[in-house]
Amino acid sequence: MAGVIVVVAILIIAAIGVMLVFDPFTPKRVPTPLSPLTGDTIISDHPSFSWSEVSGADRYQIVLTGQGDAKIMDEYTTTNGAICESSLEDGIYEWYVRAEVDGDWSDWSQSVTFFVGSDTINRHYEWEFDGRTWEWDMMIPASEYLNYSTLPRTYDYASYMTDDNSYIESLAQALNGLADDEGWSSFQLVSFTLSFVQSLEYTEDDVTTGYDEYPRYPVETLVDEGGDCEDSSVLFASLIQADPINIDAVLLILPADAPEHMAAGVAGGNGIHGVYYEYDGRNYYYCETTGEGWMLGDIPPQYTSVTVEIIQV
C-alpha cells in the first residue's frame, strides 16, 4: 500500500511540474495582420507586409504561400514588417505570421488571402466537342473571387449553387448562344455545357488547398480552372439552371449509404437515352462532370447499381 502511495505522490508532483511549465492560462500574444488584408488587390509584384507589434517579441516568422499551398516566403525578422524579395506573378496568395517571446512561439495569426496584379482575373478556356475545339475568355474581378474564397465552408452543397451570379449567367448565355448558332437541341446544349465543365482539371482538395475537403463556389472553380467532383457538379448544375439555359438540375451523391462521388442530374423528357433517376415526378438524367467524353445519360460502370441521394438545388 505504501508503494502505491509513493507512486501516486510522484505522479501528482510530475503533473504539477507540467502545469508550471505549460500553463494553459498564459495568453499567447498573436500578431494581427495589418497589410495587405483579405480582399486587397496589390499592384506591386514585390508586396510589403505589416502586422501589429507584440510587446517583448524577439522576432517574427512570416509565411507566404501561392497556388497549391506552395511556400514562396518563409522568413524571420525582428521588425513587424517584411518585403517579398521574390517577383510574384498575377494570382491569389495567402500569408500569416507569428511571434516569438522568450523562446516561446505564439499561435499563427489569422491567414490573409489577397490578389497580386490587376483588378481582374483573366481566364482562357479551351475544350473539345462535336469534333471541334471551342474557346472562351472570361474576366472576373478579383474582388468577386475573393468574396467567395473568404466565405465559410459547409457540407450543405446546395448552398454553393449560384445560378443567379452575373458571371455564371454570362457564361451560360455564351454557351447558349454558341449552341443556338449551331442549331443544336436542348440535349446537345446540355452535353456541350457538360463538355466545357469536364475540360476543367480534376484536382484533389488536399493538394490544391491543404484541406481534406474544401467545396468551391462556381466562380472559384472557374478561376482555379478546376476542382474535384463536388466543385464541377455544382458549377455544371449552376450553369444549367442559369438564365437563359433554365433547365432544372439536381445534385447526385453516390453511393447514398457510403458517399464517395458526386455528379449532377438534368431534367429531361422522352427521347433521351441513358441513366436517369425519378424524383418529384420528373426524370433526371445522370451527368458525369469529371473526365472528358461522358455525354448526357452516360454513367461510369462502377455506379450503375448503387443507391443515390438526390439533392434538390
Description:
The chain is an alpha+beta fold and about 325 residues long. It has two domains: about 80 residues, Immunoglobulin-like (Sandwich), CATH 2.60.40; about 190 residues, Roll (C8orf32 fold), CATH 3.10.620. The protein has seven helices and 18 strands. The strands form five sheets. Strands 2, 4, 5, 7, 8 and 9 form a six-stranded mixed β-sheet that branches. The chain has a five-stranded antiparallel β-sheet with strand order 16-17-15-14-18. It is elongated.
How would the blueprint of this fold be written?
Elements: H1 2-21, E1 33-35, E2 41-42, E3 48-51, E4 59-65, E5 71-77, E6 81-83, E7 91-101, E8 104-105, E9 112-116, E10 120-129, E11 132-141, H2 142-149, H3 166-182, H4 186-198, E12 201-202, H5 205-208, H6 218-224, E13 226-227, H7 229-241, E14 249-254, E15 261-268, E16 276-279, E17 282-287, E18 309-312
Parallel strand pairs: 2-9, 12-13
Antiparallel strand pairs: 1-3, 3-6, 4-5, 4-7, 7-8, 7-9, 10-11, 14-15, 14-18, 15-17, 16-17
Sum up the structure in keywords.
C8orf32 fold; 7 helices; alpha+beta; 18 strands; five-stranded antiparallel beta sheet; 313 residues; 26% helix; six-stranded mixed beta sheet; single chain; Immunoglobulin-like
